[in-house]
Q: What sequence folds into this?
């Protein structure tokens, strides 16, 4: 057995035993990495599951715009998964908000409900990710560009992961009713929004740059 196995042999021990200096219910992934690497408490996990339950119920009759009519809920879950898997974001409020980010814009869910059930921080992030659908589409798109730089760090994370998910969908298959020109327009608009949120998360920004460049050069 190599020395490298020593560490993994202790991996099923309670994290609080491994890191006795940390408060109950939290532990750090790796040692001494940035603050964003703090793993969630049980309360955070419960918040994320509660968000998944509400989002699944509210989006239950909705489909994505692809030919295969993918259930809509695949999108918010996928956005949260981009955050944990690629951006290495484990903050409970950010992940719950990622799962809920389209519930107010696209279902009967209200901001008041999000605030009451999930608290101020999740509410703030969801609010930052919600377009005012009473405005014309072009205005909404322009407002996203205009306000991109003003959002909180956590809101920017969800917005970047949302864009990345949508761009990957567009690259995989052109949605019903879309042509190549519209796909390029979306990529160009995404480039403008994303460029105003630089310095938020390196992994997300690199993945976004790559896919936007690919879509624009097609
Ligand atoms: Mn979305």
A:
């Amino acid at each position: 057995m190599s020395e490298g196995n020593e560490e993994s042999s202790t991996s099923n021990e309670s994290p609080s035993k491994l890191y006795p200096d940390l408060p109950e219910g939290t532990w750090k992934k790796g040692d001494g990495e940035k603050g964003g690497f703090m793993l969630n408490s049980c309360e955070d996990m419960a918040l994320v599951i509660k968000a998944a339950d509400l989002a699944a119920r509210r989006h239950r009759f909705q489909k994505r715009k692809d030919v295969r009519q993918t259930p809509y809920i695949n999108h918010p879950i996928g956005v949260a998964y981009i955050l944990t898997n690629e951006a290495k974001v484990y903050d409970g409020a950010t992940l719950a908000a990622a799962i809920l980010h389209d519930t107010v814009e696209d279902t009967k869910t209200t901001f008041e409900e999000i605030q009451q059930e999930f608290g101020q921080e999740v509410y703030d992030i969801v609010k930052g990710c919600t377009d005012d659908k009473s405005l014309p589409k072009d205005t909404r798109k322009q407002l996203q560009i205009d306000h991109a730089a003003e959002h909180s760090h956590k809101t920017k994370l969800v917005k970047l992961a949302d864009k990345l998910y949508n761009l990957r969908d567009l690259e995989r298959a052109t949605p019903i009713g879309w042509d190549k020109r519209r796909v390029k327009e979306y990529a160009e608009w995404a480039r403008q929004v994303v460029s105003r949120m630089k310095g938020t998360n390196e992994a997300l920004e690199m993945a976004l740059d790559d896919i936007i460049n690919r879509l624009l050069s097609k």
Summary: The pocket of manganese (II) ion is lined by residues 75, 101-102, 162 (CB under 6 Å). The chain is about 60% helix and 0% strand. The CA atoms of residues 47 and 96 lie 6 Å apart. The chain has a mean pLDDT of 87.
